[in-house]
Amino acid sequence: MSGFGPDHLPYGVFSTPGAPPRVGVRLGDGILDLAFETGRDHFAAPSLNAFLALGPAAWDEAREEVSALVRDDDFELLPLSSARLHLPFEVADYVDFYCSEHHAAGVGRLFRPDAEPLLPNWRHLPVGYHGRAGSVVVSGSSVVRPSGQRLLPGDDGPSYGPSRRLDLEAELGFVVGAPSAPGSRVGPDALADHVFGVVGLNDWSARDVQAWEYRPLGPFLGKSFATTVSAWVTPLSALDAAWTPLPGQSPAPLPHLAHADGADAAVGLDVAVEVVVDGVVVSRPPYASTYWSPGQMLAHLTSNGAALRTGDLFASGTISGPSPDQVGSLLELTADGTRPRSPGEVRTWLEDGEEVVLRYSAPSVTGGRLTLGEVAGRIESARAPA
Amino acid sequence: MSGFGPDHLPYGVFSTPGAPPRVGVRLGDGILDLAFETGRDHFAAPSLNAFLALGPAAWDEAREEVSALVRDDDFELLPLSSARLHLPFEVADYVDFYCSEHHAAGVGRLFRPDAEPLLPNWRHLPVGYHGRAGSVVVSGSSVVRPSGQRLLPGDDGPSYGPSRRLDLEAELGFVVGAPSAPGSRVGPDALADHVFGVVGLNDWSARDVQAWEYRPLGPFLGKSFATTVSAWVTPLSALDAAWTPLPGQSPAPLPHLAHADGADAAVGLDVAVEVVVDGVVVSRPPYASTYWSPGQMLAHLTSNGAALRTGDLFASGTISGPSPDQVGSLLELTADGTRPRSPGEVRTWLEDGEEVVLRYSAPSVTGGRLTLGEVAGRIESARAPA
Fold first, then answer.
1. How many helices (H) and strands (E) does chain A have?
2. What ipTM score was computed for the predicted complex, to two decimals?
3. Which of A209, B67, B107, B315 gets the most CB atoms within 10 Å of its CB?
4. Catalytic pick from B103, B194, B259, B300?
């Protein structure tokens, strides 16, 4: 079943010729049509949102129902190759964090070589910002090279044109199902009360546009042209065997961000990532090396009373491990474009026509491994100005 | 008609006891029920979005139809006092800009007294960032004082608690109706092809939370607890007499941000704002003094190919004029809390129980003035931790 066995059962939205988009579950190289198999209205829908809004008890019930169908061999399987996959959920707000210490410090060393690699707030809260929900696309969508304003080396002033420093960011995304009330906050141990599951995520970045625009309000057009997520959402309930302690947190987080059993409790996720550019694995970022936990991102996000909505998406930020072959961006891998992105290679940043594929896997309760939905996108050349 | 005459006709969403939310137009102190008057489905809806999606020709047609009803005295008017007003549109993505030179320079002088007040990029592009769409609320909604992590004066490390530096930001918001295609861009002179109208907007800000969190990814929780918009959306077509030249742009913007007839053309809007705190007018920001035009915000926002969606909201950023009694935030008015916010006053930042009202007006084609929808919100004390 190559990682998509009965221990996994991720959800997506698909269509077949002549029939509208609807919810399905992937099993091996096939799709269970949940609209057909269950007859439920919330599965006969073009997004997962109606199902997501039902909350954890309904998610568990659906998983049991699908597991029973599979166990009893009581289902039809549509070949994956006959289906078109759609964006699995309507994104409400998209928040991107910056949770990997190795990434944040690596970027700090590149851009502020004479200063402390981490800014003063970094170990006290998971730094984050809002991205563009409307630019989130499903795996397989091509990405047009963005144009933007940037200061080219040697130029006195900025110019407008195609990005010359186009990058990927390998991340893990979390999909909110159950909303929270405005003015309330969600504690770090309440992740499973609100989050339905995870997606792979590539937060494409135009580094030259970002470098020129980002002060003082943060990334904007350098990121807002496209963010790609996997077509399959792996439910948290499939990841029971993937929980693992955090690498360690010092200083101890303030009480509103602290897990009840501390950072040594299994509050991080052991998800392995592979970054493939133009067919070559260039890096293997381990999500387990990330400093801030998913629950802490959620707690921080709601710590000012901001409400969660069904369809909210929040992501880890670039996942980078401690070693040079574990970094989740070309910015780090190429030291800001100053060295090739892999041995025997001359290329640095992404070039037109190249495809990026992010692959994810995690331990399964069966002792095997789950293959999470991949995140693929090919770079199209910049459009001629309108 | 006190600014809400037949020359204005702003749109909103209202409900009455026993009847669901639907689209109406304000006339004087009454509401025309467009669902009832026109029988059209897109007005029998709980948001303006279906109408907004129809585009400029349909907007013009609707305005003519309503104008004819009013001219012929062929309508019923529901008393405003009998209706509850709702958020007028579902917000897709919310982008906040930083377009006022007087504001950006004022903030720069406060926070970087020994450096150039404006950062190097500021005169080359309208700096902006994404805010939280899910936290946008309608005028009249109370605002719970947010808690957050902040570094208190004299403390070695951050603590979590209610914001002590709660501020308002007087802004003008622009509501996108007609979408654009991903990968395309919208020119600075195409505002009216996409933007339906304007709202008043208060981008509430917790300055202590913002100061601690914002490096390097920009504002997040210091802003994401609430953004209030007016209940009434004034169509651009009511603002024909309000267009005015920009104060001037130097250096000349790059071609993709340049209006065809230059900054001396009438591409800015003459909207007058009053900031009222606890019943006292503390400031009168003039939107006409803003450096970047609405069309330039739109052109910048789409210059990387990001698509517009129906319901997108983008805002000017804090509006501040050249004189001290024209600033649009308490940050500037109180010099970061170091002086009272008005003569004979001791208070600086917003206190619990205080109400903020932003009032807006603009010249009408009749020679009188339109009163745009007000933006009101009262501060509730912080919630006890959950």
1. 8, 24
2. 0.97
3. A209
4. B103
